[in-house]
Amino acid sequence: MTSWLLLAAAGAPEGGLFDLDATLPLMAVQVVLLTFILNALFFRPVGKTVEERESYISTSRAEAKQQLAQTERLETDLRQQLREARQQAQALIVDAEQEMDRLYRSALAAAQAEANASREAARREIDSQREQAENTLNGEADRLGDLIVTRLLAAQ
Amino acid sequence: MVPLPLFLPFAELEVGQHLYWHVGGFQIHGQVFLSSWLVIGALLALVVAGTRNLGRDPRGVQNLLEFIWAYLRDLAREQIGEKAYRDWLPFIGTLFLFIFVSNWGGALVPWKLIHLPSGELGAPTADINTTIALALLVSLAYFYAGLSRKGFRYFEYYVEPTPIMLPFKIVEDFTKPLSLSFRLFGNILADELVVAVLAFLVPLVVPLPAMFLGLFTSAIQALIFATLAAYYIGEAVHEEQH
Predict the structure, then answer these.
(1) Which domain holds residue B123?
(2) Average pLDDT value for chain B
Protein backbone atom coordinates (compact mmCIF):
# COMPACT_ATOMS: atom_id res chain seq x y z
CA MET A 1 0.00 0.00 0.00
CA THR A 2 2.82 2.35 0.87
CA SER A 3 4.53 1.60 -2.39
CA TRP A 4 1.28 2.37 -4.17
CA LEU A 5 1.11 5.72 -2.38
CA LEU A 6 4.73 6.32 -3.20
CA LEU A 7 4.04 5.48 -6.80
CA ALA A 8 1.18 7.92 -6.87
CA ALA A 9 3.53 10.54 -5.49
CA ALA A 10 6.43 9.73 -7.74
CA GLY A 11 4.39 9.11 -10.85
CA ALA A 12 6.79 6.44 -12.03
CA PRO A 13 6.21 2.71 -11.60
CA GLU A 14 8.75 1.21 -9.29
CA GLY A 15 7.33 -2.28 -8.79
CA GLY A 16 7.55 -4.42 -5.67
CA LEU A 17 5.84 -7.45 -4.24
CA PHE A 18 2.99 -5.53 -2.64
CA ASP A 19 2.34 -3.20 -5.51
CA LEU A 20 -1.41 -2.64 -5.51
CA ASP A 21 -2.93 -0.85 -8.46
CA ALA A 22 -5.80 -1.06 -10.92
CA THR A 23 -4.94 -4.73 -11.52
CA LEU A 24 -7.04 -5.53 -8.46
CA PRO A 25 -10.47 -4.25 -9.55
CA LEU A 26 -9.93 -5.33 -13.14
CA MET A 27 -9.02 -8.84 -11.99
CA ALA A 28 -12.11 -8.89 -9.79
CA VAL A 29 -14.29 -7.87 -12.74
CA GLN A 30 -12.59 -10.51 -14.85
CA VAL A 31 -13.27 -13.25 -12.29
CA VAL A 32 -16.91 -12.21 -11.95
CA LEU A 33 -17.27 -12.34 -15.73
CA LEU A 34 -15.60 -15.74 -15.73
CA THR A 35 -18.08 -16.88 -13.09
CA PHE A 36 -21.02 -15.93 -15.28
CA ILE A 37 -19.46 -17.47 -18.37
CA LEU A 38 -18.62 -20.71 -16.61
CA ASN A 39 -22.08 -20.78 -15.07
CA ALA A 40 -23.62 -20.56 -18.52
CA LEU A 41 -21.17 -22.90 -20.26
CA PHE A 42 -20.26 -25.39 -17.57
CA PHE A 43 -22.14 -25.48 -14.28
CA ARG A 44 -25.68 -25.19 -15.59
CA PRO A 45 -25.50 -27.60 -18.57
CA VAL A 46 -23.38 -30.20 -16.79
CA GLY A 47 -25.55 -29.98 -13.68
CA LYS A 48 -28.64 -30.39 -15.81
CA THR A 49 -27.16 -33.42 -17.57
CA VAL A 50 -26.08 -35.08 -14.34
CA GLU A 51 -29.38 -34.43 -12.59
CA GLU A 52 -31.36 -35.68 -15.58
CA ARG A 53 -29.28 -38.83 -15.57
CA GLU A 54 -29.77 -39.24 -11.83
CA SER A 55 -33.54 -38.90 -12.16
CA TYR A 56 -33.52 -41.26 -15.16
CA ILE A 57 -31.58 -43.82 -13.13
CA SER A 58 -33.86 -43.50 -10.13
CA THR A 59 -37.05 -43.80 -12.22
CA SER A 60 -35.75 -46.80 -14.13
CA ARG A 61 -34.61 -48.38 -10.89
CA ALA A 62 -38.07 -47.83 -9.44
CA GLU A 63 -39.61 -49.36 -12.56
CA ALA A 64 -37.28 -52.33 -12.33
CA LYS A 65 -38.19 -52.77 -8.68
CA GLN A 66 -41.87 -52.66 -9.57
CA GLN A 67 -41.38 -55.25 -12.30
CA LEU A 68 -39.38 -57.43 -9.96
CA ALA A 69 -42.14 -57.26 -7.37
CA GLN A 70 -44.70 -58.13 -10.03
CA THR A 71 -42.60 -61.06 -11.18
CA GLU A 72 -42.27 -62.31 -7.64
CA ARG A 73 -45.98 -62.00 -7.12
CA LEU A 74 -46.63 -63.95 -10.31
CA GLU A 75 -44.12 -66.56 -9.27
CA THR A 76 -45.72 -67.13 -5.87
CA ASP A 77 -49.10 -67.20 -7.61
CA LEU A 78 -47.95 -69.84 -10.05
CA ARG A 79 -46.28 -71.82 -7.29
CA GLN A 80 -49.56 -71.78 -5.42
CA GLN A 81 -51.41 -72.98 -8.51
CA LEU A 82 -48.85 -75.68 -9.09
CA ARG A 83 -49.16 -76.90 -5.52
CA GLU A 84 -52.94 -76.95 -5.77
CA ALA A 85 -52.77 -78.89 -9.02
CA ARG A 86 -50.39 -81.38 -7.44
CA GLN A 87 -52.73 -81.81 -4.49
CA GLN A 88 -55.69 -82.32 -6.81
CA ALA A 89 -53.77 -84.89 -8.81
CA GLN A 90 -52.81 -86.68 -5.61
CA ALA A 91 -56.41 -86.69 -4.45
CA LEU A 92 -57.55 -88.01 -7.81
CA ILE A 93 -55.02 -90.80 -7.66
CA VAL A 94 -56.10 -91.74 -4.15
CA ASP A 95 -59.76 -91.67 -5.20
CA ALA A 96 -59.05 -93.82 -8.20
CA GLU A 97 -57.11 -96.30 -6.13
CA GLN A 98 -59.92 -96.50 -3.56
CA GLU A 99 -62.50 -96.91 -6.31
CA MET A 100 -60.48 -99.65 -7.91
CA ASP A 101 -60.05 -101.38 -4.59
CA ARG A 102 -63.74 -101.19 -3.91
CA LEU A 103 -64.62 -102.53 -7.35
CA TYR A 104 -62.12 -105.33 -6.92
CA ARG A 105 -63.51 -106.27 -3.55
CA SER A 106 -67.10 -106.20 -4.73
CA ALA A 107 -66.30 -108.24 -7.80
CA LEU A 108 -64.40 -110.71 -5.68
CA ALA A 109 -67.26 -110.97 -3.20
CA ALA A 110 -69.79 -111.50 -5.99
CA ALA A 111 -67.66 -114.18 -7.57
CA GLN A 112 -67.19 -115.94 -4.26
CA ALA A 113 -70.89 -115.79 -3.51
CA GLU A 114 -71.70 -117.21 -6.92
CA ALA A 115 -69.16 -119.97 -6.46
CA ASN A 116 -70.56 -120.79 -3.04
CA ALA A 117 -74.08 -120.84 -4.38
CA SER A 118 -73.25 -123.15 -7.26
CA ARG A 119 -71.22 -125.42 -4.98
CA GLU A 120 -74.18 -125.57 -2.58
CA ALA A 121 -76.56 -126.33 -5.42
CA ALA A 122 -74.30 -129.09 -6.66
CA ARG A 123 -74.00 -130.55 -3.21
CA ARG A 124 -77.78 -130.49 -2.78
CA GLU A 125 -78.16 -132.18 -6.16
CA ILE A 126 -75.66 -134.82 -5.18
CA ASP A 127 -77.38 -135.33 -1.86
CA SER A 128 -80.79 -135.68 -3.39
CA GLN A 129 -79.56 -138.05 -6.06
CA ARG A 130 -77.70 -140.10 -3.48
CA GLU A 131 -80.84 -140.22 -1.33
CA GLN A 132 -82.88 -141.27 -4.34
CA ALA A 133 -80.33 -143.89 -5.20
CA GLU A 134 -80.30 -145.14 -1.65
CA ASN A 135 -84.11 -145.34 -1.66
CA THR A 136 -84.08 -147.20 -4.92
CA LEU A 137 -81.42 -149.57 -3.65
CA ASN A 138 -83.25 -150.08 -0.42
CA GLY A 139 -86.47 -150.83 -2.31
CA GLU A 140 -84.66 -153.23 -4.61
CA ALA A 141 -83.00 -154.94 -1.66
CA ASP A 142 -86.36 -155.31 0.09
CA ARG A 143 -87.89 -156.75 -3.07
CA LEU A 144 -85.03 -159.15 -3.54
CA GLY A 145 -85.17 -160.18 0.09
CA ASP A 146 -88.89 -160.77 -0.25
CA LEU A 147 -88.26 -162.76 -3.40
CA ILE A 148 -85.60 -164.83 -1.69
CA VAL A 149 -87.89 -165.45 1.19
CA THR A 150 -90.77 -166.37 -1.09
CA ARG A 151 -88.63 -168.77 -3.18
CA LEU A 152 -87.22 -170.40 -0.06
CA LEU A 153 -90.69 -170.88 1.36
CA ALA A 154 -91.97 -172.15 -1.93
CA ALA A 155 -89.18 -174.69 -2.16
CA GLN A 156 -90.07 -176.32 1.16
CA MET B 1 13.34 -3.52 -6.56
CA VAL B 2 14.88 -6.79 -5.42
CA PRO B 3 13.78 -7.37 -1.86
CA LEU B 4 15.82 -10.50 -1.23
CA PRO B 5 19.17 -9.56 0.24
CA LEU B 6 21.13 -12.54 -0.99
CA PHE B 7 24.71 -12.51 -2.18
CA LEU B 8 23.94 -14.57 -5.24
CA PRO B 9 23.40 -12.77 -8.51
CA PHE B 10 19.70 -12.78 -7.87
CA ALA B 11 18.61 -10.15 -10.33
CA GLU B 12 17.68 -12.82 -12.83
CA LEU B 13 14.77 -13.86 -10.65
CA GLU B 14 13.16 -10.44 -11.07
CA VAL B 15 11.05 -10.54 -7.94
CA GLY B 16 8.64 -7.67 -7.78
CA GLN B 17 9.24 -6.53 -11.33
CA HIS B 18 6.13 -5.83 -13.32
CA LEU B 19 5.23 -5.19 -16.91
CA TYR B 20 3.27 -1.98 -16.58
CA TRP B 21 0.42 -1.14 -18.87
CA HIS B 22 -1.37 2.16 -18.72
CA VAL B 23 -5.13 2.02 -19.09
CA GLY B 24 -6.99 5.29 -18.84
CA GLY B 25 -4.59 6.85 -16.40
CA PHE B 26 -4.31 3.71 -14.28
CA GLN B 27 -1.44 1.31 -14.11
CA ILE B 28 -2.01 -2.40 -14.36
CA HIS B 29 0.31 -5.38 -14.27
CA GLY B 30 0.40 -6.65 -17.82
CA GLN B 31 2.05 -9.98 -17.08
CA VAL B 32 -0.71 -10.92 -14.63
CA PHE B 33 -3.38 -10.25 -17.22
CA LEU B 34 -1.50 -12.07 -19.96
CA SER B 35 -1.16 -15.22 -17.89
CA SER B 36 -4.69 -14.93 -16.51
CA TRP B 37 -6.03 -14.75 -20.07
CA LEU B 38 -4.13 -17.90 -20.88
CA VAL B 39 -5.63 -19.54 -17.80
CA ILE B 40 -9.15 -18.39 -18.68
CA GLY B 41 -8.60 -19.46 -22.28
CA ALA B 42 -7.51 -22.92 -21.19
CA LEU B 43 -10.52 -23.24 -18.89
CA LEU B 44 -12.95 -22.09 -21.57
CA ALA B 45 -11.37 -24.40 -24.14
CA LEU B 46 -11.74 -27.36 -21.80
CA VAL B 47 -15.32 -26.46 -20.94
CA VAL B 48 -16.35 -25.85 -24.54
CA ALA B 49 -14.68 -29.07 -25.71
CA GLY B 50 -16.40 -31.05 -22.96
CA THR B 51 -19.90 -29.62 -23.24
CA ARG B 52 -20.15 -29.56 -27.03
CA ASN B 53 -22.38 -32.61 -27.13
CA LEU B 54 -23.56 -33.50 -23.68
CA GLY B 55 -25.32 -36.81 -23.57
CA ARG B 56 -26.86 -39.14 -21.08
CA ASP B 57 -23.99 -41.55 -21.71
CA PRO B 58 -20.88 -39.45 -20.97
CA ARG B 59 -18.11 -39.69 -23.52
CA GLY B 60 -14.58 -38.31 -23.60
CA VAL B 61 -14.03 -34.95 -21.93
CA GLN B 62 -17.58 -34.98 -20.56
CA ASN B 63 -16.45 -37.57 -18.01
CA LEU B 64 -13.76 -35.23 -16.73
CA LEU B 65 -16.14 -32.30 -16.57
CA GLU B 66 -18.77 -34.30 -14.73
CA PHE B 67 -16.12 -35.47 -12.27
CA ILE B 68 -15.05 -31.87 -11.65
CA TRP B 69 -18.67 -30.78 -11.36
CA ALA B 70 -19.50 -33.49 -8.84
CA TYR B 71 -16.37 -32.73 -6.84
CA LEU B 72 -17.21 -29.02 -6.65
CA ARG B 73 -20.85 -29.73 -5.88
CA ASP B 74 -19.87 -31.96 -2.98
CA LEU B 75 -17.49 -29.29 -1.71
CA ALA B 76 -20.13 -26.56 -1.90
CA ARG B 77 -22.90 -28.73 -0.51
CA GLU B 78 -20.81 -29.84 2.43
CA GLN B 79 -19.85 -26.31 3.43
CA ILE B 80 -22.92 -24.27 2.46
CA GLY B 81 -25.66 -26.77 3.14
CA GLU B 82 -28.38 -28.41 1.10
CA LYS B 83 -30.62 -25.34 0.87
CA ALA B 84 -28.37 -22.63 -0.53
CA TYR B 85 -25.50 -24.40 -2.23
CA ARG B 86 -27.04 -24.31 -5.70
CA ASP B 87 -26.85 -20.51 -5.85
CA TRP B 88 -23.20 -20.44 -4.89
CA LEU B 89 -21.84 -23.46 -6.72
CA PRO B 90 -20.78 -21.45 -9.82
CA PHE B 91 -18.92 -18.90 -7.70
CA ILE B 92 -17.13 -21.46 -5.53
CA GLY B 93 -16.42 -23.63 -8.55
CA THR B 94 -15.05 -20.73 -10.57
CA LEU B 95 -12.79 -19.72 -7.69
CA PHE B 96 -11.48 -23.26 -7.39
CA LEU B 97 -10.96 -23.76 -11.12
CA PHE B 98 -9.37 -20.35 -11.67
CA ILE B 99 -6.97 -20.71 -8.73
CA PHE B 100 -6.17 -24.32 -9.51
CA VAL B 101 -5.45 -23.76 -13.18
CA SER B 102 -3.51 -20.59 -12.34
CA ASN B 103 -1.34 -22.38 -9.79
CA TRP B 104 -0.67 -25.40 -11.96
CA GLY B 105 -0.18 -23.21 -15.00
CA GLY B 106 2.41 -21.24 -13.08
CA ALA B 107 4.18 -24.45 -12.14
CA LEU B 108 3.87 -26.41 -15.37
CA VAL B 109 4.02 -23.94 -18.26
CA PRO B 110 7.58 -22.97 -19.26
CA TRP B 111 6.94 -19.25 -19.03
CA LYS B 112 10.65 -18.48 -19.23
CA LEU B 113 10.54 -19.14 -22.95
CA ILE B 114 8.46 -15.98 -23.42
CA HIS B 115 10.47 -12.85 -22.87
CA LEU B 116 8.77 -9.70 -21.69
CA PRO B 117 10.32 -6.24 -21.69
CA SER B 118 9.99 -6.16 -17.93
CA GLY B 119 8.90 -8.67 -15.31
CA GLU B 120 8.09 -12.27 -16.14
CA LEU B 121 5.05 -14.40 -16.68
CA GLY B 122 3.94 -16.73 -13.92
CA ALA B 123 0.92 -17.84 -11.98
CA PRO B 124 -1.60 -14.98 -11.78
CA THR B 125 -2.14 -15.99 -8.17
CA ALA B 126 1.49 -15.12 -7.33
CA ASP B 127 0.47 -11.47 -7.62
CA ILE B 128 -1.04 -9.86 -4.52
CA ASN B 129 -3.57 -7.94 -6.64
CA THR B 130 -5.17 -11.13 -7.88
CA THR B 131 -5.42 -12.77 -4.49
CA ILE B 132 -6.81 -9.66 -2.84
CA ALA B 133 -9.33 -9.32 -5.66
CA LEU B 134 -10.46 -12.92 -5.11
CA ALA B 135 -10.58 -12.50 -1.33
CA LEU B 136 -12.62 -9.28 -1.55
CA LEU B 137 -15.02 -11.04 -3.92
CA VAL B 138 -15.44 -13.71 -1.26
CA SER B 139 -16.17 -11.03 1.35
CA LEU B 140 -18.75 -9.39 -0.89
CA ALA B 141 -20.21 -12.78 -1.66
CA TYR B 142 -20.79 -13.80 1.92
CA PHE B 143 -22.21 -10.40 2.87
CA TYR B 144 -24.55 -10.59 -0.11
CA ALA B 145 -25.44 -14.20 0.69
CA GLY B 146 -26.30 -13.39 4.29
CA LEU B 147 -28.20 -10.19 3.53
CA SER B 148 -30.16 -11.61 0.62
CA ARG B 149 -31.17 -14.71 2.54
CA LYS B 150 -31.92 -13.24 5.96
CA GLY B 151 -32.22 -9.48 5.42
CA PHE B 152 -31.09 -7.43 8.37
CA ARG B 153 -31.46 -10.46 10.59
CA TYR B 154 -28.07 -11.34 9.14
CA PHE B 155 -26.48 -9.02 11.71
CA GLU B 156 -27.83 -11.18 14.52
CA TYR B 157 -24.96 -13.43 13.58
CA TYR B 158 -22.59 -10.86 15.09
CA VAL B 159 -24.13 -11.14 18.55
CA GLU B 160 -24.60 -14.86 18.63
CA PRO B 161 -24.23 -16.72 20.90
CA THR B 162 -23.45 -13.70 23.13
CA PRO B 163 -22.97 -9.96 22.44
CA ILE B 164 -19.41 -10.34 23.75
CA MET B 165 -18.59 -11.86 20.36
CA LEU B 166 -19.39 -8.60 18.53
CA PRO B 167 -15.86 -7.14 18.37
CA PHE B 168 -14.34 -10.48 17.41
CA LYS B 169 -16.86 -11.02 14.66
CA ILE B 170 -16.22 -7.53 13.31
CA VAL B 171 -12.48 -8.14 13.34
CA GLU B 172 -13.12 -11.43 11.58
CA ASP B 173 -14.64 -9.57 8.63
CA PHE B 174 -11.25 -7.95 8.12
CA THR B 175 -9.06 -10.94 8.91
CA LYS B 176 -10.97 -13.26 6.60
CA PRO B 177 -9.99 -11.55 3.30
CA LEU B 178 -6.56 -10.73 4.68
CA SER B 179 -5.75 -14.33 5.59
CA LEU B 180 -7.34 -15.68 2.41
CA SER B 181 -5.35 -13.41 0.13
CA PHE B 182 -2.01 -13.64 1.92
CA ARG B 183 -2.18 -17.41 2.33
CA LEU B 184 -2.67 -17.96 -1.37
CA PHE B 185 -0.22 -15.27 -2.45
CA GLY B 186 2.48 -16.39 -0.01
CA ASN B 187 2.23 -20.06 -0.84
CA ILE B 188 2.31 -19.65 -4.58
CA LEU B 189 5.03 -17.00 -4.59
CA ALA B 190 7.15 -19.03 -2.16
CA ASP B 191 6.72 -22.10 -4.30
CA GLU B 192 7.80 -20.25 -7.43
CA LEU B 193 10.75 -18.73 -5.59
CA VAL B 194 11.91 -22.04 -4.15
CA VAL B 195 11.79 -23.70 -7.56
CA ALA B 196 13.50 -20.71 -9.18
CA VAL B 197 16.28 -20.56 -6.56
CA LEU B 198 16.89 -24.30 -6.72
CA ALA B 199 16.88 -24.27 -10.50
CA PHE B 200 19.26 -21.35 -10.41
CA LEU B 201 21.67 -23.09 -8.04
CA VAL B 202 21.44 -26.64 -9.41
CA PRO B 203 19.73 -26.72 -12.78
CA LEU B 204 19.34 -30.50 -13.01
CA VAL B 205 17.23 -33.03 -11.06
CA VAL B 206 17.46 -31.26 -7.68
CA PRO B 207 14.50 -28.89 -8.26
CA LEU B 208 12.23 -31.80 -9.22
CA PRO B 209 11.10 -32.72 -5.67
CA ALA B 210 10.43 -29.06 -4.96
CA MET B 211 8.42 -28.89 -8.19
CA PHE B 212 6.31 -31.88 -7.19
CA LEU B 213 5.82 -30.41 -3.76
CA GLY B 214 4.83 -27.17 -5.51
CA LEU B 215 2.18 -28.99 -7.57
CA PHE B 216 0.82 -30.52 -4.37
CA THR B 217 0.77 -27.17 -2.57
CA SER B 218 -0.88 -25.51 -5.55
CA ALA B 219 -3.74 -27.99 -5.58
CA ILE B 220 -4.13 -27.81 -1.80
CA GLN B 221 -4.19 -24.00 -1.87
CA ALA B 222 -6.94 -23.98 -4.48
CA LEU B 223 -8.93 -26.43 -2.38
CA ILE B 224 -8.35 -24.41 0.82
CA PHE B 225 -9.40 -21.16 -0.80
CA ALA B 226 -12.57 -22.62 -2.28
CA THR B 227 -13.43 -24.51 0.90
CA LEU B 228 -12.97 -21.45 3.12
CA ALA B 229 -14.97 -19.28 0.73
CA ALA B 230 -17.78 -21.83 0.80
CA TYR B 231 -17.52 -22.09 4.57
CA TYR B 232 -17.83 -18.31 5.00
CA ILE B 233 -20.88 -18.24 2.74
CA GLY B 234 -22.32 -21.20 4.59
CA GLU B 235 -21.77 -19.42 7.90
CA ALA B 236 -23.58 -16.35 6.56
CA VAL B 237 -26.64 -18.24 5.29
CA HIS B 238 -26.79 -20.63 8.22
CA GLU B 239 -30.13 -20.52 10.05
CA GLU B 240 -29.98 -20.90 13.81
CA GLN B 241 -32.07 -23.76 15.08
CA HIS B 242 -34.41 -22.29 17.68
Answers:
(1) 10-237
(2) 86
